Every structure is written in structure tokens, then in C-alpha cells.
Amino acid sequence: MTQVQFIRRVLKPAVFIIALIPAALLVRDFFQGDLGANPIEEITHRTGTWALTFLMITLSVTPMRRLLGIGALVHLRRMLGLFAFFYVSLHFLTYIVLDQFFELPAIVEDIAKRPYITVGFASFLTLIPLALTSTNRMVKRLGGRRWQRLHRLIYVAAAGGVLHFLWQVKVEEPRPIIYGLILVVLLGYRIREQRLQARKARRAPRRAAPAPVGSS
Amino acid sequence: MLIKRPDDIKSSEITDERLYYDRRKFILAATGVGALAAVGASVSWLRATGEGVDPVGLSTPFAEDEEDVLTSYESITGYNNFYEFGTDKLDPSKHAHTLKPRPWTVAVEGEVNKPQLFDIDDIIKSFPSEERVYRLRCVEAWSMVIPWLGFPLKDLLDRVEPTSRAKFVEFTTLYDPEQMRGQKRAILPWPYVEGLRMDEAMHPLTLLSVGLYGKMLPNQNGAPIRLVVPWKYGFKSIKSIVRIRLVREEPAATWNVVAPGEYGFYANVNPNVDHPRWSQKRERRIGEFRKRPTLAFNGYGDEVAHLYEGMDLTKLY
Ligand code: HEM
Asked: What is the ipTM of this complex?
């Protein structure tokens, strides 16, 4: 089996199963009554944490490809991104259905008046076009360059997610700061890469345009 | 109810709770929790009443009206905000076992004629406990209904004879990072301090609690002695008290100092004044699914609203 085949046929299904474990545990704990005294809060917290975690994992695919020299890891990226969207959607639905029970005026007021909700909601909205354009057909239709530019919005969503977390804690807490630092490292890596590439491009003008950074 | 109880749960708490409903009268003696029972804490049967008011102001589970049902012992002792043991709601029940509620003293001092260092067992002996079923509304928009055992703070204050210069009461929690691991991190300026205005402190609803559900106060709920002010947000009801000082100026209450824009000194439950980051109009009663409307003064307005006449409670929140 080639490396690409291994990644597509073995690693990808394995990661798919692993990525479902948090959701499976949530369902199990729900039915066993193991979500504690305030189950709705617990569901909100777990889905939010996994949403942010999968955003970070998705963002680390490209640096990992470079650092490990395994370009084919890109075959995991779309799936991981969609899992991030899956957990954000569960998180959002938990809020709408379980927490607020469809009380539209209260929801609108929250989104308008609570900065941490406003930012979370904006991040969620940002991710919708990314999920919708994640198919191969949409990549083709948009063209690699435009698709890539659009999908950089995932950094915006992740930064919004960190801010959303940071703004809701009552006292200084390590968790949002840790996510923030991870994001800074990931973003810093990408910016440095781009600088290097731009410099290369300047040194060797008029050769081919830089190869698109791995569209899958 | 959303919370389904697993069939295999054998926790003694739940048995005790059932016992509590069935044979409430005997519970103190039956559980043999020593001090409390020995000194004959008087459990008032359906409602605790004092000074001509109805301090409970709500129906008990024994009444027709099922609006306010006692929160389970498991939830009351398993879901706590007590940052001295960590910021997660589960931390206190996990880590509070390191607290040593005996020996324990409470210094009552300041603007009083007879300052005194009380031993906790003497307090329990000299101030007979009664049962008070109160709603507890957390500033985080959740709530519980808790059967406290305790006595009016007024009784203790009368004993030390406050002077006419006493305008406020300042309460302080134990500071000992060895017993309270959360104090090893400076997330709040330790020790925790809270305060009441003199008339609030002397109000018959204001309780010093030494137990709940007919038992000694569990560590995670603020053993061995804590304040309960049912018309204010939960953070005013300071736990594990070692000092009560009568003072002339408004005390520097911890949350009020840390974030004055979010937590006022008065902190009366008020659905019309939102916390900057969330609404206070509704609350989730632990054990219930849909949120319910939050009541002004947590439903104790008839008893306490007069204390605040002429004050703009949107400014003095
Ligand atoms: C990219 C989008 C989002 C991400 C990454 C995200 C992430 C998170 C995280 C990490 C937490 C904290 C979990 C914890 O404390 O353990 C959280 C809490 C929360 N989120 Fe989100 N979130 C997002 C969008 C939203 C949206 C759209 C809403 C609602 C409109 C929302 C509502 C909440 C609420 C109500 C909490 C609980 C706050 C509290 O307990 O005080 N989030 N979220």
C-alpha cells in the first residue's frame, strides 16, 4: 500500500471513528443520566470545547504536512473541518433548542447584547459557507485560488471562537488562553511560510506561479 | 425532568433523601449527626416562621402547590460554586474533603460591646437550629430549593451587642491553602469577604446555616457555618466563615472589588438588571428543563422590599 492509499483507506476511516467518540460519549452520558446536575450546561460546554478543538486540529493539518513531510495528510483536512462544523452546529442547536427552547426574542437579545454570544454567532455564520463549499465540485467551480482565499476564513472563525471563550469566563482561566496560544502559533507559522514563499517568488521572477497549497 | 437517575445508583444520599421525605421529623436523631441532634435542633414542621413574617415564603413539597420542589441532596452537594476548591462546579465535591471543620472558631468583633471568639460547637449549642426551606438563586442564572438548618444571624449579633456605630457587617472565609487548594492560585484576592448592611443582617430571613437536609453542612456547602441570604444572589451567602466584624463603612466584598460593573455590593436578585454578559430575567431550576422567570428579590419581596425604599436598584444593583 502506498502512503496515500494508507491514509485514505486506513487512517481516514480511523480518524472518522475517533472524531465521533465525543458525540457518542455525550449520547451515552445523556441516556445514563451522567451529565451532572445541569445537563444542558454540560452539553453546551462539551460541544463548544470539541468545536474549538476540531478547529485547531483542522488548522494544524497544513503545518503537520510540512513538518512531517507527509503531504498526503491533506486527505484528512476536509473531514476534520466538517467535524469542527458538526460540533459547532451541535453546540449552536443545544443553545437554541435545549438552553433557550426556541425563545426567539431572548435569542435575538442575547446575540445582540452579549458580546461573547455575538462573536460566537458570527464565527458560526463564518463557517457555513466553508462547509457548503467543501465539496470537490465547489472547489472546481470556485477555482483553487478563490476557494483557498475563502477558506482562510477558518482562521477568523477560530479566533472568534477563542474570543467567545475568553469573554465568558468569570475569572482568569487557563483554557481559553491555551487555545489562543495554539492559534497564534498556527497563524504565525502560516504567515512565516507565506513570507518565505513571497521572497522565493521575488528571487525567481516570472517562473511558474507558486503551486496551490494542497487543494484536496 | 431531564435528569434520569440510573437504576443502579445505590448512593446512600438518595436513600437518606427518601428517608427525609418519609420521616422528616426523626431525621436529626436518626442520622445521628451528633452535635445537631444532641442539642435538639428544632425542625419546624412545614414552615419555619418567626417574628410574624413567613420567612420561607414558598410552599414546601408537602403543599398542594408543586412550584418549588426541593432540589435533590445529590445536586445540592455535587454542583457548587466554591472557588476555594476550584472553579469547576464539580471541584468542591471532589476537593473539599481536605477542609477540617473541627476545631473551628468564629471571631465576632468590631463595633460591639462584647466581642467574642465562639467555638463552633458552642454556637450550635447556644443557638438552636430550625429548618428553613429557601430558594437559592445563583448570579449565573440557575437556582435550587434547599432545606437549610440554621438560626437567624440576628441572634448571634444580639449576643455581642452591636454599638450604634455599627453600620455594616463584614464576613470572612477561612484562608488556608493547605485545606483549600483553590487558594493556591490567586484567581480571587483571598480570603473571600462579603458584607451586609446592618438592617439586612438583622432581618429575620438572614440565616447562619450549619446544616442542610437534616444533616451537618457538607464541606462543599461551606462547613461548618455559612451565611444564607435568600433574596440575594448566591455569592453573597459566604461559606466557611471564620470572622464576623461589625464595621462603620461598606465592606470590600470580593466580587464587588474584582468586577464592580458585574457584581454590586447589594446583589439583590433582580430580573430587570442584567449581568453584562447574560440576562437575569430567567433562571434554570436545577432538575428542570425549561427556564422559569426570575422573581424580584427571589420571591421574598414582601419581606424585604421595604429595606430598599427610595434606592435606585438599577444603580445600586
Ligand atoms: C465557532 C463557533 C463557536 C465555538 C468554537 C464555541 C466554543 C465554545 C467554547 C469552547 C465554550 C466553553 C466551553 C467550556 O466552558 O467548557 C463555549 C461556551 C458557550 N457557547 Fe460557544 N462556541 C461557538 C459558537 C457559539 C454560538 C453560535 C453560541 C450561541 C448562539 C454559543 C453559545 C455558547 C454558550 C451559551 C456557552 C456557555 C457559556 C457559559 O457557560 O457561561 N457558542 N463555546
From this structure: 0.84
